[in-house]
Amino acid sequence: MDSKASDAARRAELERQVRRRRTFAIISHPDAGKTTLTEKLLLYAGMVRTAGMVKGRKTGRSATSDWMTMEQERGISITASAMQFVYRDHVINILDTPGHQDFSEDTYRTLAAADSVIMVLDAAKGVETQTRKLFDAARLRNIPVFTFINKWDMPGREPLDLMAEVEEILGIAASPMNWPIGRDKTFRGVVDLATRQMHLYTKTSAAGATIPDLTLADLNSDDAAQHLEADELELLREEVELMLEAGNPFEHDAFLRNEVTPVYFGSALTNFGVEHLYDAFLDLAPPPGPRHATDRDGNDLSIAPDDPHFSAFVFKIQANMDPRHRDCVAFLRINSGRYHDDLQVHVGLDARKMRLPRPHSLVVNDRS
């Protein structure tokens, strides 16, 4: 193979690697179910066999992304936890951020490393104070936002009211992508509005710690009557038709411009609708794009993700992650190029050289 063909092959492989990557953060008001949703992605990706809960003291299982002792004791996320794994042949970088306002500065910094955001809302409370602040921070960075209305297996408000509140308070069009089947205790799944296919789930005895059984059925087929009562089926068909006729249409370009947010309903606790959300996320979320920077002379730079030169920025510094000794870890978002051991880099502000001799990667329940 000649040099031109070799270079073309390397560039094609680099472009493929860029396209298969998704880096996103999950934001919400405290207790909306953000960290539980993070944990369920690890479950569906096969990274954990049983999913822990944020408040898992009774079961002895705590959420994987809540690694600090204080987080496990208090049942909240305090630091932004970064994890990487493969799901459906995509490399996922997930940033689980703290929702509590006392630790929100960590979230603001972490959003700089995200290419998209999943915003989690409580079905009973809707858009809360911290949700609004974090959404504004995402919009300031022009980050596309998915909306997941959680806790649909518990008493909550009407879906139309919740979507109207998103539009009114956050100033973004809400486009429903699925529709809940039932409410509260009768919640049993969702309808994909694009295909009109029902995703019907069966609760497991593991109380959401394992993947539930899934049954697929066409909403307009005769088989649908085998799963729902006649009055339930009639109401569901009416609601779906209403959304298809009167709901905000989803346009991918408008989503990338932060003008519309796709809305999904479900329950992170029981896993109902979670897989549908994440599968759609892989298809709709943007891969890494160009990053803007300024050189030492004040000139604007645009760094393409397929640029062969290595570039990265620090979006977070965390101390005392290893209980065995004092440590301080800098979290890097790589913008371009490839990292290798003992890489020598130039620090942008003062041009001094620095070796990166000891890289760490965060895997489930460990650091290597």
Condensed summary:
The protein is built from 9 helices and 19 strands.
Word description of this protein:
The protein has 368 residues and is of the alpha/beta class. 27% of the residues lie in helices and 28% in strands. It is built from nine helices and 19 strands. The strands form six sheets. The chain has a seven-stranded mixed sheet with strand order 2-3-1-4-5-11-6, with helices on both faces. The protein has a four-stranded antiparallel sheet with strand order 7-8-9-10, with helices on one face. Strands 12-13 form a two-stranded antiparallel ribbon. The radius of gyration is 22 Å and the shape is elongated.
Would you spell out the secondary-structure blueprint of this structure?
Layout: H1 3-19, E1 21-28, H2 34-44, H3 69-74, E2 81-87, E3 90-96, H4 104-111, E4 116-122, H5 129-140, E5 145-150, H6 159-170, E6 173-176, E7 178-181, E8 189-192, E9 197-202, E10 213-218, H7 230-246, H8 252-256, E11 260-265, H9 274-284, E12 291-294, E13 300-303, E14 311-319, E15 328-336, E16 343-346, E17 353-356, E18 362-363, E19 366-367
Parallel strand pairs: 1-3, 1-4, 4-5, 5-11, 6-11
Antiparallel strand pairs: 2-3, 7-8, 8-9, 9-10, 12-13, 14-15, 16-17, 18-19
